[in-house]
Write a structure and sequence with these properties.
Structural class: mainly alpha
Length: about 260
Amino acid sequence: MIAKSLRDYRRALAWWTVGISAFIGVYVGTYASVKQSPDVYGPAMVTKFPGPLKDLMGGLDDMTSGLGYLQTVVYQLFIPMLFIVCATLLANRALAAPEEAGTLELVVTLPVDRRRLVLARFAALVVALLVVAFVTLLVAWGVSEAVETGVTFDRILAAHTGVLLLGLFYGTVALAVGAATGRRMIASAVAGVWVAAGYMVVTIGRGVTAIDWLKWVSPFHYYAEGRPLYEGLPVGDYLVLAGATAVLALTAVLAFDRRDVGV
């Protein structure tokens, strides 16, 4: 069942891998020009941005340094969001899309255990995202070395691992909601609202006392708080993300096992 799911994903998986790799290649490659213009892209530029925009971009570090550039342009917002969209779309193909198309009803009439079916679809999602993460990691590291950002492979690996876990978490959110409702729009909406709210809480809302406590339910807090690009692998934070993903996968199994499937 895992192999079949991966075959179903193969075209979308290829496009997402190429697309994210191209994005990383173009934007990381641009650093070669940025570092030669410290007067334009240095600390003086950062001070010109309004506070809320700086918060939204994670503080806008000095973009003339390799670490600051990769953090601001690649790992703060754009690559995590691309991974999340990719994961959500693939997760919707696992259960919700086949149910809406009427093909899943036929599958569950076969002698296939429902729990095993959901776990197989989840495993296929994990493998698919691992493929995207592996290829894009090599691209990020290779281009980073080519333009001499000075960022070591272990730091890029730490940041990329966080991107993978973040994407997998939200993909599993979509999988769980799809398993419970059988509707792609609902699954995408729940994941999307959680993404937007979670990101706002740990950026613009960081200094707002009334909502500061919400950071503990924001996956972005566990992705970014440990500053993996600067300080290495934040094992504790990443374990929280992995554990929450496992709970969501179990929720998907239980929800789908107990629900009537139809169109």
